[in-house]
Task: inverse folding
């Protein structure tokens, strides 16, 4: 037991590692604050293209979505970070994370929002247009609000996944929470910093997990 | 060399690809084995937990809910790193393959339990009461009446979640599992050319595009009638 506490819950090591863990935590928050909106923008564009464009564009958008849902995000990130420089394109760690998350989470948000838009009856668009709203106005004021409400649990759940996914930025050496915890672990030969990082992720995301459970149960009860 | 030739030389270098094809094919095999192990053990454990939860023992249910929440909240990569780099400190070292398998199994278990549980609670109470009144026991009712109805509606969300988590096998490369991504990265450093990475990406597409398409089909096939 003592051995366990020394290896995993070591107060001295935690105190020593605290400053860089805290920095990592803030970095993770910043990453989430950038990647979630990026993914949402990509998702809205994809969802609109795959529901209201001409047939060829709809098919292309669906193909694009499937492509980036099939490639694991880490593969995409490694490709952008370590592969592209061979072709003389160096986007850097930040660029790789931004592009990778835009492509990957955009595809996931796109799929969720597409399902939402398709769940709104066709008559809504026709009625909105017949009152004199333009297509864009009808989308903005009538279709999207209903679409978002219909798939709210999936949207929140996808957002949770995006925040969790920011941990892969450690692979390209961005100093987020997991990266800092690994650094601290390497410096101290002790697993406490990683345990601390896991606790931090859990405390940050548990409320979101609870919220998703409640939203899902409510959606289920409403059927 | 022109820009286009340079691009081809870097990303579609057939010579490099041919050299490392066997390595990446091995990686593909490892990814498939790992994914199948995760799917089987994760879904089975998830179903087991959901059935335990149906028994309605309060303290046990709190424990189940906490475990499920924990593995839904933690990023899979954090769990893998913790198991692989943390446990040896306790003399419980495990191989990188085992650490990846166990981590993703726990994650799939948590998400699957939640989905199975939602399915079980969606079956009307009258079904339980009617089945019990015909003389079926609790577990008979669960197994013969409730689960067959519950499982049907869990198929679409379960399929999508399972696909998303099996793609996490790529995370194993971080701790040194020579699955597709790990094998491609080694090949890339041996050859100083990123073509193996292209090959790896193609391997993932070959593996997962049919699965993603299947997920889409399942979603429409088993869609709830609203």
Result:
């Amino acid at each position: 037991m003592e051995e366990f506490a020394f290896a995993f819950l070591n107060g001295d090591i935690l105190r020593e590692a605290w400053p860089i863990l805290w920095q990592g935590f803030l970095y993770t928050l910043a990453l989430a604050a950038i990647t979630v909106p990026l993914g949402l923008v990509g998702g809205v564009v994809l969802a609109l293209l795959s529901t209201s464009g001409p047939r060829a564009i709809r098919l292309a958008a669906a193909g694009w979505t499937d492509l980036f849902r099939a490639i694991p995000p880490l593969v995409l990130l490694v490709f952008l970070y370590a592969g592209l420089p061979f072709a003389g394109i160096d986007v850097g760690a930040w660029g790789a994370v931004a592009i990778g998350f835009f492509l990957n989470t955009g595809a996931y948000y796109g799929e969720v929002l597409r399902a939402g838009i398709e769940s709104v009856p066709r008559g809504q668009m026709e009625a909105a247009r017949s009152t004199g709203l333009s297509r864009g106005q009808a989308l903005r004021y009538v279709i999207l609000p209903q679409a978002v409400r219909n798939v709210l649990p999936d949207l929140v759940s996808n957002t949770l996944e995006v925040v969790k996914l920011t941990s892969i930025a450690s692979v390209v050496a961005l100093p987020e929470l997991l990266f800092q915890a690994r650094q601290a672990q390497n410096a101290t030969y002790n697993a406490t910093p990683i345990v601390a990082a896991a606790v931090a992720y859990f405390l940050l995301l548990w409320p979101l997990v609870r919220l998703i459970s409640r939203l899902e149960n409510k959606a289920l009860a409403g059927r | 060399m022109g820009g286009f030739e340079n691009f081809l030389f870097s990303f579609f270098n057939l010579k490099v690809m041919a050299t490392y094809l066997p390595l990446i094919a091995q990686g593909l095999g490892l990814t498939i084995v790992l994914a199948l192990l995760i799917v089987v053990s994760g879904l089975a454990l998830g179903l087991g937990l959901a059935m335990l939860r149906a028994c309605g023992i309060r303290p046990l249910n709190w424990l189940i809910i906490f475990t499920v929440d924990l593995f839904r909240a933690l990023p899979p990569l954090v769990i893998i790193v913790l198991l692989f780099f943390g446990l040896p400190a306790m003399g419980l070292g495990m191989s990188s393959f085992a650490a990846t398998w166990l981590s993703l199994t726990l994650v799939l278990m948590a998400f699957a339990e939640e989905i199975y549980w939602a399915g079980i609670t969606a079956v009307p109470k009258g079904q339980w009461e009617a089945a019990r009144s015909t003389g079926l026991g609790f577990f008979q009712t669960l197994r013969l009446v409730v689960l067959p109805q519950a499982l049907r509606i869990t198929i679409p969300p379960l399929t999508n979640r399972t696909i998303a988590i099996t793609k996490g096998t790529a995370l194993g490369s971080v701790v040194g599992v020579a699955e597709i991504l790990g094998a491609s990265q080694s090949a890339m450093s041996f050859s100083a050319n990123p073509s193996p990475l292209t090959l790896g990406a193609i391997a993932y597409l070959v593996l997962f595009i049919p699965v993603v398409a299947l997920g889409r089909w399942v979603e429409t096939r088993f869609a709830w009638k609203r």
Observations:
- Chain B has a mean pLDDT of 90.
